[in-house]
Design a protein that fits this description.
The protein is mostly helical and about 230 residues long. Helix content is about 80%, strand content about 0%. Helix 3 packs parallel to helix 7 and helix 5 runs antiparallel to helix 11.
């Protein structure tokens, strides 16, 4: 059975990892800041579903085979890099395309209800409509296609699984601690984004946010492709 001290040490490690700004934080903030709270929660659940998958696979020693196999690891790494570059490029292209066909005019001083055209543009940005399922799919694929998450679990998780205990039960318990901390942090991120929502609803602010998010996501993909 995992001791309270071991649980505390693991919680400290994954807690610091959760608080470190990264791809997950970028996805959640961007989605919530645009006012898509339902989709943002879908992204959160998708990311944590991926975390649970990695925890289970590590408990069953499947991820150890992945990291030991250079070909499998490289295939997953390149798939993840291609997906991130595509997702970031999609955001950047949407803002560039929208700017080129929109004539300059005064922006509204207060947010208005999104038009059909704005909703279509949001679909172009996110790759799906504003539904929890669309957000879940995006968060899950992003997490599962990141081999560095698997490598982290391979390096850390076995150290906290006591000898003689059920590896699957212990692994799921530890992954559950990680998920609980990550969901708690996600609540804070979504609440923060909701406070800034009115300011970010303006077209220029939305385009600026999309450019930053697209650049960050694409950069993550390029760094993953380069093995950094």
């Amino acid at each position: 059975m995992i001791t309270p001290d071991a649980l505390g040490a693991f919680a400290l490690i994954v807690g610091l990892l959760t608080l470190t700004p990264g791809l997950d934080t970028t996805l959640i903030l961007h989605t919530a800041a645009l006012g898509h709270r339902r989709r943002a929660w879908g992204v959160v659940l998708g990311i944590q579903s991926g975390t649970l998958v990695w925890g289970v696979l590590t408990s069953l020693s499947v991820t150890a085979l992945l990291t030991a196999s250079h070909l499998a690891y490289e295939a997953l790494r390149w798939a993840g890099a291609a997906y991130l570059v595509w997702m970031g490029g999609r955001l950047l292209w949407a803002t560039r395309h929208h700017s080129s066909r929109k004539s300059p005019k005064a922006e509204p001083t207060a947010p208005t209800e999104p038009t059909a055209g704005a909703r279509d543009e949001d679909k172009t940005r996110t790759g799906a409509d504003d539904t929890p399922l669309g957000g879940w799919r995006q968060g899950f694929v992003t997490n599962v296609l990141n081999p560095k998450v698997g490598a982290f679990y391979v390096a850390v998780l076995p150290q906290f699984i006591p000898a003689g205990s059920s590896r699957l039960t212990s692994g799921v318990l530890l992954a559950g601690v990680h998920i609980l901390l990550a969901v708690t942090w996600s609540c804070a991120l979504i609440a923060f984004a909701h406070v800034l929502r009115d300011r970010l609803q303006r077209p220029s602010a939305r385009r600026y946010l999309d450019r930053i998010t697209g650049t960050v996501i694409a950069t993550f993909g390029i760094r993953l492709a380069l093995g950094e």
